[in-house]
Amino acid sequence: MSSASLLEALCSGSGARLALGTSIVAYLIAYNEAAAPALVFATLLAIVYGAMAARCKSSLRSLQMPYVRATNKFDFGCLFLAIWMDALTAMCACAVLARTLSACLDAMTGGLARILILGRNSPANEPWPDVLGVAVVFLVTGMFMLGLEHSKAFSFIMTLGMFGLNAILSAVGWWRGDFLAWSENYFQPNGINSFLLTTALLSYAVPSVLPQQHRGARSTAIMVFALVCISLLLTAICLSTVVHFKLRDDYVAVPLFNILDESGFHKLVPASACMLLLTSSAAFMEIFPELYGIVVRLATSEWRILSKQISYESSDSGNPVLAVFIAGSLCAMLAFACPLQHLSYCLAASHLTAGFLRAFYLLYTPYRPKFMQPSSSESSLSYSRLSTAPIAKSSSSCSSAATASSSRVRRSLWNLGLHKQRAMKKPKNKQRTKPEVEKEWLLLGEPTSPCPQREGRDVESTVLSDSEPPPSDFEYPDKFDKTDSDTSTDIDAIVDEYRQKIKVTTAGPMERSVRVPTVSSWRVTIFSIVVIGLGIALCVAGLVLHWAPAAFTGAIGVLIVAMMMGIIPQYTGSVINVSPVLCALCLLLSVVFFSACAVHAWPGVLVWVLSGLTLLLRCDKYCCNCFDQPTVLNAQLIPSVSGKASTSAAAGTATSIRMPRPPKGVISLPQRVSGIR
């Protein structure tokens, strides 16, 4: 592992998350939410959950979204909601940093900035509306619209600010700290619920994605997570020696200033505000590109959710101006009106929801069969011999021909094995005593109408069967009769070329050696996922009602069912290969942590999810035609003509052809310009 790879991992967003966790979120938890000793234990659990969530997100890195969008709408919707919640997470993080910057600017001026803008009667803790925060967001948005790009200089400034803050906190703990908090209840004020809430709020501080798969990637990931864990633990231990938990009426926005005032270091408030300003501004400039990057990604051809004009880069600045403006507007709205407590809760809830959706997708995807067994055994491709016998006019002849055709079609494309080489050999020519008759072959089945009188021993080509092929009475002539029309010769050439080029292997031995998912195993998987959901619900109910046996029973049940899912047939050769136990545990922890912080966050998360669903369901009308892709693919296939199709065609049913819809809006015809010629 090289230091360059570690620096690259920290500059790709992990450093900004760590700065937000150690400089802002940890202080908010220790001063407003729970006792500082709970922060130490919550850090360990947050690291474990973050590693599992990062493993799930990294496994989807090489997923081909156009293929997912064209094949399965449910999968595409699940993955879209996950990235949609990532956008909400980035917005809340930027809003938290903007409100912190506003408080730092006010503290550096001694409160004069707030008084000049909002007046003397404005609250000093968390003014509303936060005009300074909105001004900061607009300033950063304008800088990125004019061409500002992400740089490692931001990470360097952020690192200096973090070192300065940790030095100030360590000095305060060394001179004024004690360990009285460790002699009291660790999980004040609400016991296990406070511990779960602390873990949920800290979950965003852990890296959300693992480094790229290269040499030394595993050691780089271990070093990144170890660095994050050590930083959070040191901050939590220092806070546990300084802060003594007590219930407060108001939610303090920037607890660092209050801690310095209560410890007798009020002269360090401007210096700490300057350090926090550097850290927050650099972290904001690292997280904000992630937000408008998500907007650009949703507008590309990979997702095709938003209009593609949003992803266009300006020729002057080189940045996507529309995407930057959209991201900045959303951040400004959140920073303008939302209190910091609601923003921190919504930050944790959206991050946990995104992890839940990815873990759920990875849990069921490997067990779903790629091809469902059809209910009827009709084939979409068959070869049948055209008879030149006179057509019978009676209805009995038509019914007997349709019956013979349907019996031949029942032997589908998957019921004849070609592993017998003698079936592919060309039989010897026999002496023909009867006069030559014209033989025609139809590539895709029976003629539509009328019903001809056929011989009883015609043969058809079928593929993939374990049984012996039926004996054939057809003779392959060396030379075909030349007629005035070359239609029969062309069809014979196509059939001959198809027989020579198509090579099919039998599926029987492969199914005996490799266990692939089937419809039955898929039903077992669905039942297992339902049982896992019931176990999670039982665990959450036990935690809410403070009933420990129910919580332990639900958690153990989830673990047992996830371990049993390992024996169900699944696809293991794809790029998505995550253990079901890891996915189930990630689901369990996501729901448990979400239940702890859902008090203030569920309205915002619900509104954001509904807006995403609305955009997903209506994007085919307003932005693109992504959900018409399967229909277009099916329309491009050549339809099969079977016995039933022949009967329906004979009955007079019409074939419907899907045409492109007309353009929207008023279409005006060009008018003739009258004038002197």
Automatic annotation (TrEMBL):
Region (Disordered): 421-487
Compositionally biased intervals (Basic residues): 421-432
GO molecular function, one term: amino acid transmembrane transporter activity
Keyword terms of this UniProt record: Membrane, Transmembrane, Transmembrane helix
Gene Ontology CC annotations of this record: plasma membrane
Transmembrane segments: 7-29, 35-54, 74-98, 128-146, 153-172, 192-210, 222-245, 265-288, 318-336, 342-364, 522-544, 550-568, 575-594, 600-617
Basic and acidic residues composition bias: residue spans: 476-485
PANTHER family, sorted: INNER MEMBRANE TRANSPORTER YGJI-RELATED, TORN AND DIMINISHED RHABDOMERES, ISOFORM D
Protein name: Cationic amino acid transporter C-terminal domain-containing protein
